Amino acid sequence: MKKRTFSLLLFTFIIFPLYSQLSGPSDIRMFLDYARFRYDKNETYVEIYYLLYNLKPDTLNRAKDVWLDFELSEAGKDSILAKTNLMKFTFEGRQAANNPSSNVKGNLFKITLPIGKKYEFTMTRWNENRTVRLDSLKQVFSTPSFETEKIALSDLELCSNIVTGSTNTKGPFYKNTLEVFPNPMRMYGPETPELHYYIEVYNLKAEDPRGNVNIEVAIADKAGHILERKNYTRSRNYESLVEFDAFNVANFKSGLYTLNFAVTDSVNDYSIYTRNSFYVMNAAELSSQQETMLLAFSQSEYFGMPEADLNKAFAQVRYIATREEAAIFQSLGDVESKRMFMFKFWYEREQANPGVKDEYYTRIEYADSYYAFSNLPGWQSDRGRIYIVYGKPSVVNRYPSTAQSKPYEIWIYHELEGGVKFLFMDDSGFGDYKLKTTNKRGELHDSDYDHLLLFEQ
Fold first, then answer.
1. Which CATH class is domain 7-281?
2. Are 140 and 306 in contact (CB under 8 A)?
3. Where does residue 161 rank: exposed (0-12), middle (13-18), buried (19+ CB within 10 A)?
4. Residue 158's closest CA among 232, 250, 259?
5. Does residue 232 register a pLDDT over 70?
6. CA geometry: angle 102, 104, 108, nearest 5 deg
7. Of the ranges 52-66, 150-164, 326-340, 398-412, which is most confident?
8. Interatomic CA distance for residues 155 and 225, integer angstroms
């Protein structure tokens, strides 16, 4: 594969008239996806796709400007590897209503990155004055090595279309004689009935050149039932293969599905598989509310979130989750169910109390900044938990150590239950404050410390 430098390319080719009637908190829907392919023994080739969908063309025929920037960094580190300037994308007004493709804009980034690291790619939308962040999406990915002794697979890229025998060799989506048009939305339905896929298979001759390999491609529903399947064989005459095809999913019911791709080497009794999730939306069978929620999920941070991050996400909201919600999350056995659970957890709360999610995570950030101790994140500390759940206290009284007492703090909430106090004490003397007692109903109470709260105001 020809070496690619970090580049940005415009595409405006995906048409989704199905979603033009949706309403939501934003007039612009943002989608972000990626696929990783073999480059060489030191680097992985990564394609990063994003898409903007204009839900509400201006009825007065005014153009709409959308400002974005993009940032690539190594996960867990402060340094930024690449960052674009603010970029403007203009959507036309009312005249574009009859031309759905003009309501879609997107970009393709191409980059090679060192193998064995973890990266974060962030897409941020700004207001018209470029002073306030309106929205953002983030994808976190690693860069695996495909140089192994066994068969290896690239990511399974979901596409809106694949053109065979293309002569557009200089086009941004050209690879291996094909034009491969990604679908960052990962949504299909009556207006987008063909689920196209693209994948590369490597190291076919590395193990044993004898015989063929068996390939199975299947679509499964959320319960794991196979709905469509293709089986075929491929020769091992070449070191690598490019596999692509399509399924018609127009008649599928609305919901979550998984596309599975497996290669079996019967000679060496070895198999490898990968998969990718997608959604089908048939508006005729959904209420407008269900339709809006399903589309919102596909653009949320939980769509595609790794299981470890989902477990952390629930741990952070456990403070406000009900017992029933905690039991449900603990019972979930697959990552897709956890993704939908976390999305609905906040989606339903946002409907009842807009802005509650942002406020909650703002409190987590504050707790991490001010209440961390040693290797313990601030949100896991006692003070962090109280701050996250109840907010900023009305008064904080701090007391140094004495002959009779360790250092301690008393937090007072005047507006909570007619006046509530929390006592935190630093038993170690190194800043590790623990909750000792409070008069808040449902929280820890220890009468041995009541005298310290008696005259606090």
1. mainly beta
2. yes
3. middle
4. 259
5. yes
6. 125
7. 150-164
8. 23
| CA–CA gap between residue 140 and residue 358 (Å, rounded) | 20
Q: What is the mean pLDDT of residues 323-339?
A: 89
Strand pairing report for 152-153 and 255-265: unpaired
> Is the separation of the CB atoms in 166 and 177 below 8 Å?
yes
The residue type at 371: Y
Burial (CB count within 10 angstroms: exposed 0-12, middle 13-18, buried 19+), residue 216: middle
78-92 tens-digit pLDDT: 889 999 999 998 887
Candidates 162, 199, 154, 174; CA nearest to 14 is 162
Tokens read off for 23: 């309403």
Q: Does the CA dihedral 401-403-406-412 come out positive or negative? A: negative
Task: Give residues with Cβ within 8 angstroms of 227, minimum separation 6.
Answer: 219, 220, 221, 252, 257
Q: Look over the chain and give the mean of its residue pLDDT values, rounded to a whole number.
A: 86
Segments of the chain assigned to CATH 2.60.40.3880: 7-281
Helical axes 382-390 vs 356-370, angle rounded to 10°: 160
Count of Cβ atoms closer than 10 Å to residue 208 Cβ? 12
Q: How far apart are CA 90 and CA 102, in angstroms?
A: 10
Phi, psi of 359 (to 5 degrees): -65, -40
**CA gap 312, 306 in Å, rounded:** 10
Amino acid symbol at 37: F
| Reported pTM | 0.71
Q: What single letter denotes the amino acid at residue 84?
A: T
